[in-house]
Design a protein that fits this description.
3 copies of one chain form a homotrimer. Chain A is α/β, with parallel strands linked by helices. Chain A folds into 2 domains: about 100 residues, uronate isomerase, domain 2, chain A, CATH 1.10.2020; about 325 residues, Metal-dependent hydrolases (TIM Barrel). Chains in contact: A-B, A-C, B-C.
């Protein structure tokens, strides 16, 4: 079976609706990609080294791919997870496992993305299967050796205008600076401030982390004031290197203030290893509120995606490390959790808060109502497990009626799989076009408005929500 | 761009299904409107004064309209919120803001309702836009000066048979009485008993409120017995003035009984300002159960719509007052919360309980299962944020399979926007017709049954659920 | 009105999609039925006595049927609930009530199943209505007297290959043994171990139950060790009689371990009636973890369907007994609840855990993510209130994108209504076909894959998930 990428894929089945959807899609398919939140490493572009083997590029680092193979009984080891550079044999083995288990991806976006990547990026003509595995591997490997498949060349071919990375507050952002200073490089690659680990005293290694933070900021973090100043300094460093947002993910979204003397006391106790669980929790929730305050001051958009139980399976964590496919969603609550924050900053000039969820019950119940009142709040695109055609449709239908089309962020790829970026944005544009065509078909929107809205969702919403 | 109200709007896109949906819709579009729950003021009809300016009629009091404009950056002040009668300049400014920001309503029911009102009630031909704002304003203002646009004339033109208002227990219901006694007035306008503020000792002003209640009931409310007797008396007053339901909204739906000596003790403590938060909470939950007991005795249908965080943004509350667009939903729980109530009264003769939710997860999980067993329980129409085409479709698909078509209330407009009533009911009839046509298309219902069901949803279900 | 069972019922309305759906359905409609979880009594087949009257067969024991009639005001007594064998008069009365209230089932799967049963199993041509009630009753009664309508004959006609029953741990499984040893009987009827009542010390009668358990296992259950050994022994007894799974349902899914000395202490206290509520809860949660341990050892698939408030209406429980239509869903939580269990056994060889829910919010948020990582976890088919066309479609669209098609169990009828089994499986096959056809129509799956997947969902997934 060849890979066949049908030009109408993901468009609505009804012939009349599809015809309009296709025209809408044609009007936006070629627009530049804005990627305001993702996990590509800036060094990839700064250094522009050729990619390694196909498995290291497309399988091992991508938990979307490895998790379903793991569920099907393939050990993560066989997929190259957590092993660093792979030998040719190891890479081929991983690739074969993928191809042998290709049917497990039926009905998933991973299948959709990978087929699009294989077909459109690498010109692969075979569908993955046991007997095509080696041929596809060879084809990709061959391509990866060509100059036109280096990161910068692909970046250009993908039509990316802005790419945001996600970075540790202690990162010196040298790669971002190098790109910004490189006259041969014209796109924007901007860092994102991601301070989670510095805000959670209950995490192993927190005390060391805040010491490192102090060094990076050249500030004494042995007390709470120094810690706050260090965070502020590192945020400034990020702003100076082009950052427009700070990204936050904790087990919940609460933002309860602490009197500063309590914050100071808990901070010291946590450094000494003496803080109780209740105290470290209270501290983290207080710090999320502090992050909002800093956002008001330095202008970084605050993005929030709470309610994930990280590393659900400790044995896998210990053997393979984090981000290996077993972060599992929890119920999310925003209404009461964010009330202290929004009471203070919800209508503050320039403050912007993007809410992501993987508990989709929050879309219509909390996120859309919040984004439909507060000028600061934006409904983040469906993300992670929900970044898939049917889930995106549920998001469209759940959020738009309450918050309209203008209060969403537009698409966010959130990926570490560089080569999947165009496939992901293309999927989103197809789904936007289908949704808008359906609204027109029911006479809820005029055709003219639908064309305008399709372009805005791609080119205006992300710029507005992320201050690009 | 002119407003074009397509005759097939909101009907399913598939041509075959649409053809049947259109026939179903044609069979019910002209039926009289039953509005068993809403927020129109009875004095409007009793006094029949001309409406004021277009902004005071269609924008300022309607938080559905103002919230999205606020999110788009328009201060509520500019929209006339909380300002009482508006000057011509202020009214025009508000109207212009609406027209300038018209695109923010794309995909929302507000846009749908307003376009239908503008087109069908006021004969406006232009779509709102910066350059049409003044022309539309003038057109509406002109119309509002005509006798045929007075409240009673519109009421007649809208084809409303029964309209329920929502009223404070201390209200003397003079307007309702005046209408009932007016030989020139033939429709039913009935009050609804809405006692929330008298049941929540934690609210500011509660002690004064129960004193007022005592005066209204001519009963000494300085102890719990008197308080109960006063509530019973005011309910009787409402029943005597045609009320058929009592409406309740608290942060949760719990109905845990208190021994009466505890209720009495907490009541006295609350009056003295000495009750703890736990006590006032327990008292409120107990009182919701008491309301059910009274409903068993006086026959008022009990309607319940819990789980909203009222006045989420205190600065807006302080400046503009309540009901200004920042009530935000919370997770709702009914199964355990209502168990004490349903254990006692769930099968009691004549007792009826209508459950509304804006947490749509409760539809299939709790509300439909409860309404599908208890003869007293009805699934309330999707309401507030969920009173929109896609949300209504989710309700239809989530509730019907478990509770059938007969255990729902039919449509409830719940609006304070008088002129939107026909547009709202029309929307519902279109969606009912589409849903039923889809069931027929899949051979889950015969065509004959679909026609019968369409008529029942409009003309039978609300009468049954609300005892009209 | 005659019953008309349209050949395309439940297939998608779009003509192009329907054509493919019909071909997919035709390819699987005749496959043998695998019923890996249900509530038919094995004695029915072992004894093969003629069924009683139509009401005792189709109404009284089926809470799906009686609950909506009860909601419509028909007393359960009139439907024969909890009355044992019915007189001819009582049976006819119950049957008439059903026919009189036939419209309350519009839009529900009960209507769909019953019409299919009446039409396809009993050859009834009339649709239930007041004036057809007696004629239909007579027709069914006549049929039930024929040898070809005895349980074994119907079982053969239904094309059932494997039927799992649900059984008390103390059951001697004589009926299963009789069937297994009967040379005239060739299908598999396997028991399922259902130990809930033995694991919940807070339930009335628990102490007596564990004594009975001790007797059945010939083990002294006066201490915790004996209790554990007795449970293990009874599981072995089930395994020896063909069981492949153990089924568990508690108010929540938590699996928190207790040190064994605490388990022992609580066990003794509970036997003496001295355990606190917190202790019995902790014990039950610990025991669910123990059940997983035993599953690892004896190979029984663990199936879990938590979060139901059993017997919501105590007066109905007292008068009519359990399983009479008032078990009401609660919110379900799996991510944290199952973490201790999955940390220990989530990747254990041979361990399998099937997760059912009637809180559909868990599908995309928790169940699909868990089933998409853990090789042990399967997403159970939508069940009970969710075993209906639209809910099944939501399941398909919520689970597949994250977990693919291979991590689901395939259909589970879970019914005590023997004659509804073919109708239920047929419904599922139609819905699978429709879903797959829609994926093909959007070019998300090839036609060839869709045919393969349709067959696997029926014939492979249940065998794999339930180790049939």
């Amino acid at each position: 079976m060849p890979i066949h990428l049908h030009p109408d894929r993901l468009l609505p089945a009804d012939p009349g609706v599809r015809a309009l959807a296709r025209r809408l899609y044609d009007s936006v398919r070629g627009l530049a990609i804005l990627s305001p939140h993702g996990h590509v490493d800036a060094r990839l572009l700064a250094e522009d080294e050729p990619f390694g083997d196909p498995a290291s590029l497309l399988i091992s680092p991508d938990h979307y791919v490895t998790r379903l193979l793991h569920a099907a009984g393939v050990p993560l080891h066989d997929l190259g997870v957590g092993r660093g550079p792979l030998s040719e044999t190891a890479a081929r083995t991983a690739w074969r496992r993928l191809c042998e288990h290709w049917p497990v991806f039926r009905g998933t976006p991973v299948r959709y993305w990978l087929e699009t990547e294989l077909g459109e990026v690498f010109g692969v003509e075979d569908r993955p299967a046991p007997d095509t595995a080696d041929r596809i591997y060879d084809r990709i490997a061959e391509r990866l050796a060509e100059p036109s498949f280096r990161p910068r060349a692909l970046f250009g071919r993908f039509g990316i205008d802005v790419l945001a990375t996600t970075d540790d507050p202690c990162d010196d952002l040298a790669a971002h600076r190098a790109l910004a200073e490189d006259p041969a490089w014209r796109a924007r690659v901007v860092p994102t401030f991601r301070p989670d680990r510095y805000l959670e005293p209950e995490r192993a290694g927190w005390a060391k982390a805040v010491m490192r933070l102090g060094e990076a900021a050249d500030t004494d973090t042995s007390d709470y004031d120094g810690y706050i100043r260090a965070l502020e300094a590192r945020r400034r460093h990020f702003v100076e290197h082009g950052a427009t947002s700070a990204d936050h993910s904790h087990a919940d979204a609460r933002t309860d203030p602490l009197p500063s003397r309590d914050a100071d006391r808990i901070y010291r106790a946590a450094l000494a290893g003496d803080a109780t669980e209740a105290e470290t929790l209270a501290f983290r929730r207080h710090m999320l509120l502090e992050m909002a305050r800093m956002s008001c001051e330095d202008g970084l958009v605050m993005t929030l995606h709470p309610a994930v139980r990280r590393n659900h399976h400790p044995p896998t964590l210990h053997r393979y490390g984090p981000d290996t496919g077993h972060d599992i969603p929890l119920r999310a609550e925003f209404t009461d959790a964010l009330r202290p924050l929004l009471e203070r900053y919800g209508t503050a000039d320039g403050f912007q808060l993007v809410l992501f969820t993987i508990d989709e019950t929050a879309f219509s119940r909390e996120i859309a109502p919040l984004a439909g009142f507060y000028p600061s709040v934006y409904a983040g695109a469906p993300w992670w497990f929900l970044d898939a055609p049917d889930a995106i449709r549920r998001f469209q239908r759940s959020v738009t009626e309450t918050a309209g089309l203008s209060r969403t962020t537009g698409f966010v790829d959130d990926t570490r799989a560089f080569c999947s970026i165009p496939a992901r944005h293309d999927m989103s544009r197809r789904l936007d076009s289908g949704f808008l065509a359906e609204l027109v078909a029911e006479h809820r929107l005029t055709e003219e408005e639908a064309f305008e809205a399709a372009a805005e969702l791609v080119a205006v919403n992300p710029r507005r929500a992320f201050k690009l």
